[in-house]
Amino acid sequence: MFPLYEMLVAHAQKQGTSFHMPGHKAGRGLGDFSPHDLLALDTTELHDTDNLHAPTGAIKQAQELAAKAFGARHTFFLTGGSTAGILAMLAAVTKPNDRFIVDRNCHSAVINALILSRVQPIFVYPPLVNDLVGGVTVDGVAQALRENPDVVGVFLTSPTYYGLSADIKGIADIVHQAGKILLVDEAHGAHFAFHDDLPMTALSAGADMCVQSAHKTLPALTQSAYLHIGSDKIDKQQVQTMLQMFQSSSPSFLLMAYLDVARHILSTTGQQKLTYLLQRLKQLRAVLPCVDEHLLGQAGISQMDWTRLVLDLDGLPTTGVEVAEILSKKHNIQVEMADRRYVMLITTIDNTDADFDKLLHAMQALASHQPQKKACKVSQLPQATLLMSPSDAFHAKTREMSMHEAVGQIAARTVSCFPPCVPVLCPGECITAQAVAYLQQMQTSGSSILGLSAQEQLVVVAPL
Q: How would you classify the pairing of strands 342-346 and 308-312?
């Protein structure tokens, strides 16, 4: 038996319509870059293949071409996803017990970076609008800098999973005026550099360093990403040293090769293909209940990624989770994620007109659907008080408790819903009834909860 391989073959044979990552949509747009003997390209460090951790040949040239395309001073290829880049970025600019201002709407990888680097976060919460988490505001960062003048820098997440971008330029200005460093998790914005109607890139806005997940929105393989250095405040050698610690010494040449291919495709035909994609999506937004430009200017939202199609079901007698299930089971359309109110679809230059026509017809068929359930409303990203540093809480003596019993205790593990892996609980935070209610609702709706014990309980800091 080989169940995983068989599952993948069966999934591929379904030939479903993909509105989820990876961005290459089963290799549609790769053309000549998708040879039948793909496995022959899976090699290792040889005298003629170069070495990611000490590149002198093809890898060095490919990274230099990527840096030019994305507007970076230097670009590193990542084969451990943006996660590897996030770990390396924070470790490269901090030392144990340093303090850093962190966007609380971050990926769980950022919390892991805080734990591993033993950095104390100063969390800044972005505001909510229409049940969506917006962007950290300029005023919010400015206040955090005034109250914590000893911090090393600021770590932002922009765009959000839903394609909402903060005012990175405004934030970069005040961060640099204070003499601090700005790091940005731009995992969902690798395509921004290739069209003027998309949000300004973090590099263009003044980020000192950022990561981008190529596999999310570009024709690249899963787990491939870029780390870009944007200023001379960053020690390139220190970043490279940290990447050697957080990435395999035998990185996948296939992943690296398609980072190179994705850069080439977007640099040569990206603008044309993105223009057509944006026009097609504009037509869809005119007839589907989508999040649109009315959010701009609210809740710290400076720009929006118009390739991110977000269906808003507020006011309709159904939930996003239920709609996503129907799209999958009845129409073989797979979306990226859904919650109580929204269905989020990732579209890329490799989606076709047939994909969009199928989506439109499926949504029209839903008009006569009789809903089975309606989830209660619980706001996302419940706020909590940080009582211990994430590292201290993670390494403390722990015990397990049921969710109900754990209210008022200190979390010892990161707990998040997958996707999008934004922490509901961070190690060191006081567990609130609101956070427990949110986790229970998401469990009921079918979401995977990461960070629970084997007995489906919360791991908390034990009394001394």
A: antiparallel
